[in-house]
Amino acid sequence: MVADESVDQIFNLKSFYPGSLQHEALRRNTRFITPINLSAIPNLIKSRAIPVHVALVQVSPPDDFGWMSLGIAVDISLAAVQSAHLVIVQVNTEMPRVLGWCSIHVNEVDVVVEHDERLLRVTAPPEPESAAMIAGHTVRLVDDGATIQVGLGALHRAIVKGLSEKNGLGIHSRFLTDPHHLFSGVTGMLDFMRGATQSKGGKAITVLSSTSADGKTSCIVPLLEKIPVVVPRSDIHQVVTEYGAVNLLGKSIQERALALISIAHPQFRDQLFSEARTIGLLGSKRIFKDSIKGIYPLKLEETVKINDESVTIRPAKPVDTRRIQEFYYEMGKDDIISRFFQEKRRFVRDEIEERTQIDYIKDLSIVAVVGEFGFGKVIGVGEYFLIPQKNIA
Known about the structure:
The protein has 393 residues and is α/β, with parallel strands linked by helices. The chain is 24% helix and 17% strand. It contains 11 helices and 14 strands. Helix 5 links the parallel strand 6 (147-148) and strand 7 (170-171).
């Protein structure tokens, strides 16, 4: 329905699902969109803060006891039916019957219309080349026995496919299906992310391609402008692109900026670094080094068991500077002399960055890390330098 301001309005439009806003009619009427968490809508309807006078829903045919399933629409439809003055149902044999508290009885209905039609279907969008790479980084963060929640789209489809090697996974998800073009608003994303982080061992993982579909725009930006924000930055924890994964929990603004730049597309990192420094997200003396342009070599990463403890052996990242500093400060005097050929008591940031912020091609540092991703402790560091004449390290 398109609102026409030239005539009196019969309907007061209120939409909770703006979709992608790619359609011109949707973009023209964004003022009718209500930003709200999906979980809050049923209570608003039941309390009549958002009154529903007429509910029009599709249902499956009634069973022998008169119960009709809401099928694919069990988000807020039940609350609307329970609160409306007039309930109209379209009985559609195409509507699947699903389990759970998502059915209404024929006695609760005022008008029944029997009409069969195909349920709305959309063509799946093409899968971006980055999907498999992003899935590779993401599935490493998911442990056997985890309960997963996934979104829609090619990235999530690739992640689900990548999880096929995991064991004992549970599902507690808004949806787990092929992507319908995504029409959604705030939905329940924030609720699921907060639920994940508050559960024991839970992880909130945000996945995205580093660029737009045409590759001309970075999806990682210094500031979000003229765009709805569903999840506040205080709730963002682990972020994954095709160029790596970082954990932002407990990190300062400067640490977050450096971490996100390190997984942005290499062609935009210089610009992002400059903009971040200009607006004060980074210190004015911070220098953009070649290491931040490097593409993290995931193939060199592996996890091994040593004395029943998991140890991740991987290339160093720009976000490892502080942890490597701590590793050096905890080394014994003899170990320091063996490594640096002299006694050292200070390991300043600039020096550590020169040793560890590398380009992954001409020089490479390998770290051994134990503990939770993003908070692990460095227990070993190895440094390798390319000798071009001999093509060896």
